[in-house]
Amino acid sequence: MEEIVLSSRKVPYQIIRKTIKNSYLRIKPQGFLQITTNRRTSVSGIEDFIRKNETRVLYELDRIQMKKPVTSQTALIFGSEFPCIREDAGGKKAIFQNGVLTVGQKDPQKAQKLIEDFYGTLVAEGCKKVLSQKGEMLSGTFPLEGLVLKTQRMKSQFGSCQAKKRIIKMNTVLGRFDPMYLEAIFLHELVHLRIANHGADFYRLLLSFVPEYRRLRRELNQLAKTTEV
User: Fold this and answer.
1) Which domain holds residue 18?
2) For 76-90, how does the pLDDT look when each residue is reduced to its tens digit (9 = 90+)?
3) Is CB count within 10 Å lower at the N or C end of the chain?
4) Do residue 83 and residue 53 come from a single domain?
């Protein structure tokens, strides 16, 4: 691992050399840079490339440092932190019981899948709870019959709606935060059953159901940026 000084700050970087024409810079969650470049690129050329991206690099590194460290021994469930135990027992589920999330795998990739499956169930149940509590009010505005609800870990969206197929997909990350954010996003997607775009009519209808939507969305965006999940 090499080091470069950016604005009086030592930043570690890793070089990966390949038979490629261009150079690529990735900022890793562990707080170092990964530079993929041609086999013949000099170290000085690599460091010049890094310096050209200095503003972006320092901004992203600051964001990583700001993130709340949720370790593999803890889990966020609807805004509260609980112990998380990983057992090497060949389990096929993550189970939350007596205030503890028990994951039946120690292998990181397999464990993460079980955890996301757990959050997927949590998010789906949260959406069904909204429909149970507000279904009568919502049914007068949205065609809820035949609605298909899916969950998935998504990188760039909290939810999506395929109005013609009547499919709403919710991001499993919402299971980490207070249920009020899940409700706001779910209602946002329900509005898309009526209105495809994000114009004035869309927000007029959405705000009639979630008056504080804009504030909640700003808070959720910040939570997603500053909480390591």
Assistant:
1) 2-66
2) 999 898 999 988 766
3) N
4) no
